[in-house]
């Protein structure tokens, strides 16, 4: 595996592969890798000639500077995991390589930066107004900003994302469509720990006891999946609230059952062809999200 830190070096290296007619698969991450990320690398390997993984803790998608500062950074361990998994290239740029000072200043001033769309009108509309978008204003603009930059640098045929960030996946698909990027977005299943907790880099900040307490999140979601055919939306919401409240350390931020395409909350399952149950829960200073596809 080759580790590259600069945009120009990466472009030069990938152009040599493109000239050989090789396809490129891309897995963008923020590091603190776990087996969920490795499953994305494996999926990329199965569908691409060359696999690129990026590790970049993106400052423009964090609303809370403390959250940014505390985000785990484990580049040496991550590099070893990627090499063992058969990743071909690790791209791990510094912030200055990805952002100009003017872009970072806009973030510091909490002003929305649309320069990443390169003059094209991009509007995520209602996709970005619910759930994570409602709780974290500006978050998805920051996500789109960095992913669009990475896509233009790597220019992959396919990019691989985990379904745990279901709303983010919808935003990225919308961005790719609106910017006419010739990239296929591949969604990969959530990988879970033995107790059902969805694997996340943030899990590293949990104590052993907190990890076990947080398993109530997935248990609640699995109950919803088992019962949605015989209970209505309001009954299921009450069930989840009760399940989470049974664990005093957990604080429910939101739970919604939404249309899997529009992400708009459902009042009846007859409103959608496909529905997903999405949840965000705080435990101590750690915020966890999860979801399960209902139908």
Structural description of this entry:
By secondary structure, this protein is an alpha/beta fold. The protein folds into 2 domains: 2-188, 3-Layer(aba) Sandwich (Rossmann fold), CATH 3.40.50.620; 201-293, Pantoate--beta-alanine Ligase, Chain: A,domain 2 (2-Layer Sandwich). 41% of the residues lie in helices and 19% in strands. The chain has helices spanning 7-19, 35-47, 65-70, 75-85, 95-98, 101-108, 132-135, 139-154, 166-178, 208-227, 233-245; strands at 2-4, 24-29, 50-55, 89-91, 158-162, 184-188, 250-259, 275-283, 286-293. The protein has a 6-stranded parallel beta sheet, with helices on both faces. The protein has a 3-stranded antiparallel beta sheet with strand order 7-8-9, with helices on one face. Helix 8 crosses helix 9 (166-178) and helix 10 (208-227) packs antiparallel against helix 11 (233-245). The chain is globular, with a radius of gyration of 19 Å. The mean pLDDT is 96.
List the helices and strands and how they pair.
Layout: E1 2-4, H1 7-19, E2 24-29, H2 35-47, E3 50-55, H3 65-70, H4 75-85, E4 89-91, H5 95-98, H6 101-108, H7 132-135, H8 139-154, E5 158-162, H9 166-178, E6 184-188, H10 208-227, H11 233-245, E7 250-259, E8 275-283, E9 286-293
Parallel strand pairs: 1-4, 2-3, 2-5, 3-4, 5-6
Antiparallel strand pairs: 7-8, 8-9
Helix pairs in contact: 8-9, 10-11
